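Protein Record: Sequence and Backbone Structure Tokens
======================================================
Tokens: labelled as protein backbone structure tokens, with as many entries as the chain has residues.
Question of interest: how does this chain fold, as expressed in backbone structure tokens?

___
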Amino acid sequence: MNLMRYKWLFIGIFLFNIAASLAAWAVFGLNEGIDFTGGTTIRYPLTAEQYARVNSGAIQRLLVSGDLAALRLKPAPPQPYSHRDVTTGENVYGIIIKTRALKGWAEQRVVLAALNEYFGGEVPRERLQIAMVDPAIGRETVRNAFLAVVIASILILIYIAFRFEFKSGVAGVVALIHDTLVVIGVFALLQKEITSAIIAALLTIIGYSINDTIVVFDRVRENLRNRRKGQSFDELMNESILQTMRRSLNTSATTVLASLVLYVVGVESIKEFCLALIVGITFGTYSSIFIASPIWAIWKGWEERRQLGGKVAVTAK
């Protein structure tokens, strides 16, 4: 099987994925959690009947009209949620309301009173889940999250360059950028909330993806020592991929299946984390095998042709 015959198709898919992810990010924007924006999140529980008639648009209009207009809540689109409680086995329903940082119980009570009136019932305070993050802390979280991803990528580049060669490091980091952007693009498209847990998922994905890349390049290094005369880098890389692909696919498949089970039956709080792992590890496996590998082979082949061309030119003189 000659997979490298389709290397330009793989590169084309890689470029399409990045373009589509950036487009989704630009068009839909990110649904940033209060970890990053600062503000107040209210998880308001509902009955099955109330959940069935939830209208996010009407609730958002409610939060900017009447007595609430003076509060200038700046609400994000409300997000209904439902999941099965693994402890009781019962279905749990509710809606997530995100606003600017509310100043204490006084402002929270005004918002809750409006929601109680809208849904026709009063929710006991102990059943409410209210979280608040100061905007300054949110900005610091954004900066720290960005630094975490950048520092991880730089350290990975240094490690792979030291263990293999610089070209391998660059190819690996390019694949990591692809994986990160695809996850961000999917979350932008689906308007899933970006929280600190998603940053943790991205770092986990980076680790899984680079592990697959290292496995391939480790086999490449071994095959380089026994490279046959006249064997091209495409042929050598194809041989290395075929020798390691089963292991990479099996490792990734078991992790994706476990994440899928948790996404389906797990609690609501880990669903976004599991979705990020499913998307990231799936595309990370693709990038490790079909992006990093062709980039390295194309680069090495070009470098070899340039060196041979230089030698021919010197001989001709």
Observations:
- The chain has two domains: 3-33+137-316, 39-133.
- DSSP finds eleven helices and six strands in the chain.
- The longest strand covers residues 91-99.
